[in-house]
Amino acid sequence: MARPVTDGLAVKIVNVIVFIFFLGSNVYSVVYPGTPYKSTYLMPATFGLYVWILIVLLLLGTVIFQFFDAGYEPVVDGVGWRFAISELPMRSGSASSTTATTS
């Protein structure tokens, strides 16, 4: 039996908004020319950064999959609000690190 579209609608909408914010902030950090870049002794190889493409595609698949009947139970019931909550430490940490001043 098909579930109504409004079943778990709040979680679905928040998941879409969080994904758009996640994608936008990652694109902004790469494209924005004023981003400070520090060279360190421990830098991953350039191809190691391409794993983010896989992560973004898998998250996009999850956001799309939640709107199908088969995706309701694993995404809306299983993951629920944890997807949105998992983004809070990433975004708040990046904002606080850029406001630090040196004396």
Textual characterization of the structure:
The structure is a single chain. The chain is mainly α. It is built from four helices and no strands. α1 (9-31) runs antiparallel to α2 and α1 (9-31) runs parallel beside α4. It is elongated. The model is unreliable at 93-101 (pLDDT under 50).
Major beta-sheet overview: none
Helix content: 55-70%
State the distance separating the first and last CA atoms.
Answer: 64 Å
Radius of gyration: 17 Å
Which regions contain 5 or more consecutive residues with pLDDT less than 50?
93-101
Percentage of β-strand residues: under 5%
Mean pLDDT: 78
DSSP summary, beta strand count: 0
* Classification by helices and strands: mainly alpha
Query: What form results from the Cα inertia axes?
Result: elongated
Q: H/E series, N to C?
A: HHHH
Q: What's the tally of helices?
A: 4
Helix and strand layout, with pairings?
Layout: H1 9-31, H2 51-65, H3 69-79, H4 82-98
